[in-house]
User: Fold this.
Amino acid sequence: MSSRYDTDYSKMHFETRAVKAGEGPDPVTKALNTPIYETSTYGYETAEQYDEMLALGAQWAPDLYIYSRTTNPTTNALEKKVMALENAEDAVICACGMAAISNALLANLDAGDHVICSDDTFMCTSSMFADILPAKGIETSRVEILELSNIEKEIRPNTKVIYLEALSNPQLKLADIPAIAKIAHDHGCKFIVDNTFLSPCVMRPLDWGADIVVHSGTKYYVGHGDALCGIVAGSKKDIDRVRYYYDNFGSHISPFNAWLALRSVRTMPLRVHKQSENAMTLAKWFEQRPEVDFVTYPGLESHGQHKLAEKIFVNGNFGGMLCVHLKGGHEEMCRFADATKIPPIATSLGDVVTLMFPKTAYNNLIRISVGCEDVNDLIADFEQAFEQMKQ
Ligand SMILES: Cc1ncc(COP(=O)(O)O)c(C=O)c1O
Assistant:
């Protein structure tokens, strides 16, 4: 008999998918909210039944549980929700973003292969390309990807992967995902996109031709600064291969953190919409301040790839990440940041709380991850910080 809980939400609107996909009453207790399955293993009735499960397990069949390093019902519910939001056939949830990135890369690169990576990436991703992959016999090139011919020029017969951050950390360069997907596929390469800075509420790389999308789910997916999480999503074939690495490397998330993420994803569209609205207001406000040299935000017409953002972003969202560069130098950056009262000075991003990361190493850039506070309070705080900076 078909059940009201078997409804396929994958064709419904994004907000509905965020709330409903992947979840339903627990098959045993009927608990409506997905339970936290804190179990390492699962008990079977007979040796024969167990043999059958092992054979199916080796094919990564869904909803099949043998051992929680490989699969867990709480994590599985989160995988299904992520698939619905990323428009992916399959997804793997890892312990953190770097676990997601390393699994996606190592599942697609062997010794003797070559990978092209954009020149502006998160620090640990940069270490992967500078040290870790070359030490394992994988050639790497870093290129400025805003000029597409730079990528084409770097392609070699052994190039297997093009990797980049859709909106880069920290300089907020927006990659032309559809054009780079075409270059990758014309040359038989996999195209892997880290979409941490945007989230699927702003842009979905798989819709624009990327093969695999990765996230630090720690950021917008979790959104409350309380759990680490990593996401890899793509076709069933690509994800089967990633899952083989994930299982053997032991990159799984804990069921509790998967549950925290599952709970948070339901409000991700609401949070990101509010963060985008706040970020747009703040970006425009900073841009007209006399103390500011320049503001980088993809929603501003002054952003070099604003037209591209209008083309590939969805729901009128331009995301919550902006960078402000003050006139003056290191002293002004520190005086301004120290004088603010609302945003903590902290790493990470995507939280409901506004976070500020002053970056001496990037020519005194101030990276702001805009939260869900009332934007008038943020403006008042930044205004008084400018006054104090000048005293
Ligand atoms: C763009 C990007 N990718 C990946 C990561 C790594 O994520 P995690 O800290 O969850 O391992 C980060 C962390 O800040 C990031 O900014």
Residues 96-98, 122, 125, 165, 169, 194, 196-197, 216, 218, 228, 230 surround pyridoxal-5'-phosphate (CB under 6 Å). The CA atoms of residues 227 and 253 lie 10 Å apart. The chain has 13 helices and eleven strands.
